[in-house]
């Protein structure tokens, strides 16, 4: 079996055995079995999923990261774990890079970080706490891109992700009989006010941002009761970390005003923060040269700015001297990332693996 076929075999296994964040037990066992079979030194952790492997010799350490978790979503009417963000592909491309590099004469150590819980925005922190980037000078990530960003055959040396965070909130008002609305404090009225408010937040149009309700839970089976309480959540995004701070402040101030206006209590917390990309020019230039060497100038796309978020960028936030960039792989991916029926051209897997291997060798 050649390397391209082996990469596809890895992908098919991970695709048919998806596991959600922090529960990637079988995925971790499979990765460990692959490393054992290849004779690659590696270690897992007693308290979290994920794996770190290493090849080569020397004092310099270059690393590459793959995220390993799946999403939990409805697919054809059934709730299940599903690799609709392409982490099965990311793992396979990184394993492919390992295969391409394993028998090379390396003058440095190459570390392979298989990281859990990217979808929750904090899996990278668990790897950082466990020494994943200790001694590392350069770090590369890889991710499939939707067709509107990159078509098949195109590869970018850098993804400029935006910042993302969730708000989880609770409204506490007063229930009332449907015939006596004046006796209650209707949580649905408050939800409507919040919805209108976040649609009226404006910053400069030269930088992308958004805030939207993504979860509302209120009321029960009795349709003649006006619900006083509700739980809600928001997904909040911005292209920069500075704008995210302003956006959070504006939302917090608005919720306080709405609570006073409707005479209810609104409590909330911010969770699962993911920082915007801090791309290293050095790492990006190395990746750019490697793409051109592997695929040619015509296949080398400029850096991509995307509104999506990725906790890969915590690595540079926590270690600012780290030279890091995430490589984006065009794969004719449709209808889009996180769509339950996402599909892509599987030939992109070998392209990504070869680009990664060449990038690492060139570092």
TrEMBL record:
Record domain Peptidase M20 dimerisation: where: 170-251
Molecular functions per Gene Ontology: hydrolase activity; metal ion binding
Q: Record keywords: Lyase included?
A: no
Q: Could you say which residues bind Mn(2+) here?
A: 85, 87, 119, 143, 338
Q: Which residues form a coiled coil?
A: none
Q: Which cofactor does it need?
A: Mn(2+)
Where does the source fall among the domains of life? Bacteria
**UniProt keywords, alphabetically:** Hydrolase, Manganese, Metal-binding
Give the cofactor note text: The Mn(2+) ion enhances activity.
Record Pfam families: M20_dimer, Peptidase_M20
Q: What is this protein called?
A: Amidohydrolase
């Amino acid at each position: 079996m050649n390397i391209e076929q082996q990469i596809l075999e890895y992908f098919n296994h991970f695709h048919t055995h998806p596991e959600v964040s922090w529960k990637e037990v079988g995925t971790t066992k499979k990765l460990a079995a692959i490393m054992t079979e290849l004779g690659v030194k590696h270690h897992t952790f007693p308290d979290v999923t994920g794996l770190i492997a290493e090849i080569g010799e020397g004092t310099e350490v270059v690393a590459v990261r793959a995220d390993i978790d799946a999403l939990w979503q409805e697919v054809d009417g059934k709730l299940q774990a599903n690799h609709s963000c392409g982490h099965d592909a990311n793992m396979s491309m990184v394993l492919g890079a390992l295969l391409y590099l394993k028998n090379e004469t390396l003058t440095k150590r190459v570390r392979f970080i298989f990281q859990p819980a990217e979808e929750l925005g904090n899996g990278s922190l668990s790897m950082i706490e466990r020494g994943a980037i200790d001694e590392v000078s350069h770090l590369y990530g890889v991710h499939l891109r939707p067709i509107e960003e990159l078509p098949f055959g195109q590869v970018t040396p850098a993804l400029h992700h935006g910042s993302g965070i969730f708000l989880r909130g609770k409204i506490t008002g007063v229930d009332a009989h449907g015939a006596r609305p004046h006796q209650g404090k209707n949580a649905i009225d408050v939800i409507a006010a919040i919805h209108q408010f976040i649609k009226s937040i404006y910053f400069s149009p030269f930088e992308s941002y958004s805030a939207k309700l993504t979860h509302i839970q209120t009321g029960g089976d009795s349709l003649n009761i006006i619900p006083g309480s509700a739980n809600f959540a928001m997904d909040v995004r911005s292209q920069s970390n500075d704008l995210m701070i302003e956006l959070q402040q504006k939302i917090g101030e608005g919720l306080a005003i709405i609570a006073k206006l409707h005479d209810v209590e609104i409590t909330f917390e911010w969770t699962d923060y993911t920082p915007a990309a801090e791309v290293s020019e050095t790492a990006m230039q190395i990746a750019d040269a490697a793409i051109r060497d592997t695929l040619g100038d015509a296949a080398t796309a400029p850096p991509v700015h995307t509104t999506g978020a990725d906790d890969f960028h915590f690595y540079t936030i926590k270690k600012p001297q780290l030279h890091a960039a995430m490589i984006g792989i065009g794969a004719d991916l449709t209808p889009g990332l996180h769509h339950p029926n996402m599909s892509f051209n599987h030939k992109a897997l070998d392209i990504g693996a070869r680009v990664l291997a060449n990038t690492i060798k060139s570092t």
